[in-house]
Amino acid sequence: MQSVRRVAVIGGNRIPFARSNSRYAHASNADMLGAALDGLVARFGLAGQRVGEVVAGAVLKHSRDFNLTREVVLGSRLDPHTPAYDIQQACGTGLEAAILVANKIALGQIEVGIAGGVDTTSDAPLAVNEDLRRTLIQLNSARTLGERLKVAAKLRPLQPFKPEIPRNAEPRTGLSMGDHAAKTALRWNVDRQAQDELALRSHQRLAAAYEKGFFDDLMTPYLGLTRDQNLRPDTSLEKLGSLKPVFGTKGPDAAQATMTAGNSSPLTDGASTVLLASEEWAREHHLPVLAWFSWSETAAVDFVHGDEGLLMAPAYAVPRMLARAGLTLQDFDYYEIHEAFASQVLATLAAWESPEFCKERLGLDAPLGSIDREKLNVNGSSLAAGHPFAATGGRIVATLAKLLDQKGSGRGLISICAAGGQGVTAILER
Ligand SMILES: CC(=O)SCCNC(=O)CCNC(=O)[C@H](O)C(C)(C)COP(=O)(O)OP(=O)(O)OC[C@H]1O[C@@H](n2cnc3c(N)ncnc32)[C@H](O)[C@@H]1OP(=O)(O)O
């Protein structure tokens, strides 16, 4: 049996992220993922090469996109003999894709692979309602004019044409991600000021990273955008503090609502890709290794029957991964915690600092403790960059790998919360 091998992160490429219904309003998932992949292929000289596997996905996709990743590969300059498939694990999709590719490389099943993710809320798969859908399918398979007229007679005006619009909500609770997070914010006493400060830092740090040219070799301009469109370098605590709460604004706790458009990640369109390979492949292709993809862990919480917050699964995944890796929470030079909402990042950090949570929920004798906040999301994160659900994992892996490469040594933690009560986490090392 093949022993486990080291997995190299060679680099990444994404397109700038756009605000929903804006620059990329007419771009499809395939267009955007294709653009991110084309940039990666060009950057690393992969044209005409057969890559072991391309794994990517989208959280929201049309039925025509049933084989999205393979279609994108066929439209790319990669050798068409490159296999590809889709995965979907909500906001964890991009990172989970990287884990799948990394595992195959580690086991010696492939030498090189590409992970990616894409999402658009502008081109959401709006479906017709159940009655109309069934009638249209029958209409399509009717063989005679008489049969067609009989089926068509079922189409009564207006009401049946009411579309089913995808909602950013949990099917089992009916609550949006934001409303779930608002409950968690209350549970952990996360105050408004701390959320706004985190949001401000995210914008300031992302802006500074752009100024330094950090993203120059991680991004391909697309449809006129050269930077993430949501970035607001001129935002301030005053502006953020003036915004009205938008989540947790109904029910008995409405007066304590703290989550606004400024301290929540915005609805976003975009795509990202990451190139992973074995050490041997990297050497043969004369490509430097940015970082090693060394550990991963996925967890889920029962937010339906239990009292745990919908987005709290990383609070469980990270300690399990640390235990396996023999590390403490403080053994990191960088922490990349996906900013779904500022309150979510702060609630997760509070849970790791809490002796009760760590004892009762994690079974630990002592809390994981606090982290050095200066090491958290040093180049900004989803509050400033935006969050095209499945594309966030690739953005983070590429960013962290480059940070570690620039530092020359060290370790970085990735933590991504996801719908359905899931959390996907990983460690990169250099
Ligand atoms: C696992 C996970 O990741 S879960 C997370 C999944 N993602 C989500 O749930 C998405 C959550 N976000 C949303 O649903 C939406 O972005 C909302 C509801 C928060 C906001 O939507 P919108 O109201 O359309 O946002 P919009 O961009 O118009 O902002 C509203 C106002 O805030 C202002 N604003 C937003 N951010 C900032 C900022 N950083 N600084 C200053 N002002 C700001 C805007 O300028 C706008 O002001 P205006 O009304 O005067 O024009």
Described by its quaternary structure, the protein is: single chain
**Number of separate strands:** 12
Q: Which outline best applies?
A: globular
Question: Whole-Å distance between the termini?
Answer: 27 Å
* CATH architectural grouping of the domain at 177-213 and 294-429: 3-Layer(aba) Sandwich
Q: Examine the coordinates and then state which fold CATH places here, giving the name of the CATH topology of the domain at 177-213 and 294-429.
A: Peroxisomal Thiolase, Chain A, domain 1
> Major sheet, described briefly?
10 strands, mixed
What small ligands are held by the chains? acetyl coenzyme *A
Label the structural class: alpha+beta
InterPro entries: 3-ketoacyl-CoA_Thiolase, Thiolase, Thiolase-like, Thiolase_C, Thiolase_N
Pfam families: Thiolase_C, Thiolase_N
Keywords: Acyltransferase, Transferase
Organism: Micromonospora chersina
Task: Summarize this structure briefly.
With 430 residues, the protein is an alpha+beta fold.
Q: Which descriptors would you attach to this protein?
A:
single chain; about 425 residues; alpha+beta; Peroxisomal Thiolase, Chain A, domain 1; ten-stranded mixed beta sheet; binds acetyl coenzyme *A; acyltransferase; transferase; 3-ketoacyl-CoA_Thiolase; Thiolase; Acetyl-CoA C-acetyltransferase
Structure description:
The strands form 2 sheets. Strands 1, 2, 3, 4, 5, 8, 9, 10, 11 and 12 form a 10-stranded mixed sheet that branches. Strands 6-7 form a two-stranded antiparallel ribbon. α2 (68-74) links the parallel β3 (53-56) and β4 (84-86). The chain is built from 14 helices and 12 strands. With 430 residues, the protein is α+β, with helices and mostly antiparallel strands. Among the domains are: 130-164, no CATH class; 177-213 and 294-429, Peroxisomal Thiolase, Chain A, domain 1, CATH 3.40.47.10. α3 (93-106) crosses α14, α4 (130-141) packs antiparallel against α5 (145-152) and α6 packs parallel to α11.
